[in-house]
Amino acid sequence: MKGHQYISNQVGNKIAVILPIKEYQALLDKVEELEDIRLYDEAKKRKSEPIRAKEAFEMLDRKRQK
Fold this sequence. Notes:
59% of the residues lie in helices and 14% in strands. The chain is an alpha+beta fold and 66 residues long. β1 and β2 form a beta hairpin. It is elongated, with a radius of gyration of 20 Å.
């Protein structure tokens, strides 16, 4: 990590960090990818029957409306 800065409290303990936006976005992308992998692994463990993409999107739309 280059270009990051720390914010400290009155006694010198580091309490926050400032990152360049590119580094921040890269971290978010990695977290998102790891979450996708986790969800995929979780779904594979369920051994459920596959469903058509159209049905899956309809299910997601119904969930979002609740």
